[in-house]
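Supplementary Text 2. Reproducibility record for the structural model of the 125-residue chain.

All settings were left at their defaults, and a single model was retained for analysis rather than an ensemble. We include the record here because the model underlies the residue-level annotations in Supplementary Table 4.
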Amino acid sequence: MRLLTSVLASLACSLAVATPTAAPVRAEIDLLLSKLQASGCEFNRNGSWYSGAAAKDHLLRKLEYIEGKSTVQSAEQFIELAAAKSSSSGKSYQVKCGGEAPVASQMWLTKQLGVIRAAGGKGKS
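Retained model, structure tokens:
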């Protein structure tokens, strides 16, 4: 009986998977991360600077983790849950472009999201 209970509990857990992120939301997130990758800006997490490509890879892994637990309802929610700060240290992420002072990644990404939306979702500036 104990084995049957264990098997049923495991099955129930595997069925309790979040519904996928809606395609339009995922498309916005993908455009946002592509914009970060192509920006030439650097991304700081936990005291180290990374390229936009490395930042995109890291944030995609975080997105996949979050999607395994719940549904991402908006690009803003993705920024808040995955792209604003480290889930391990709690430190805010930063973005630095050229000689400009670093800014909070949440502010930079939110601004870029506005640019994407103003361009009709095509990501052009």
